[in-house]
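Kindly review both lines to help learners:
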Amino acid sequence: MTRLVLVPDEVMPARGRQQGFWGGESEADERAGRALARVQGMLGVAAVTIPEQRGGRGPADVVVRVPFVGTDGGDNEGHGARVSAPWPGRVPSPMPTLLPAELLPIHVLDVRGAPVWVSGRGTLSAEPSTVRFDDAARDGVSIVGWAGPWPCDERWWDQSTHRRRARLQLMLADGRALLVQIERGNWSVEAVYD
């Protein structure tokens, strides 16, 4: 055999469950569902969660954890914002896979070593050349490729929750690929591509 072509007969939305190779759910799936329902009965509905894809601009917004519903995982469809809705400022696919527990501060610098910033109109002050991860570090890591920026002005109508930032995708000389953001003049690593 020199070539194998697989053509799907049908597609279905991902709901965080893996079907068996021949389709449907197995007895083991049903047992697992009943066990999770028992845990919910003992610890409360919020104690057992599953991932759900939602709409959003950044990686932390796109997949959220929602309570497990029913003995078969239920159908959580409709609980979140529509995935297909327009999301101005959304990072293009693929989304990064690793999100740090908290944002990692960095410095994004141009070829002269000056800080790069994003204007109110969403343009870069200069082409990004280097990322420095620590104030004490003299040399940073060279940027070999980048995309963006994607400006995002969220909740502009409410001063207490207004958030303005811009994101860049960076490919570093050491092989790492990062999603970084600038907010209030400070750069940070938001996520890492695996």
In short: The radius of gyration is 21 Å. DSSP finds two helices and eight strands in the chain. The chain has a mean pLDDT of 83. The helical segments are 27-43, 59-62.
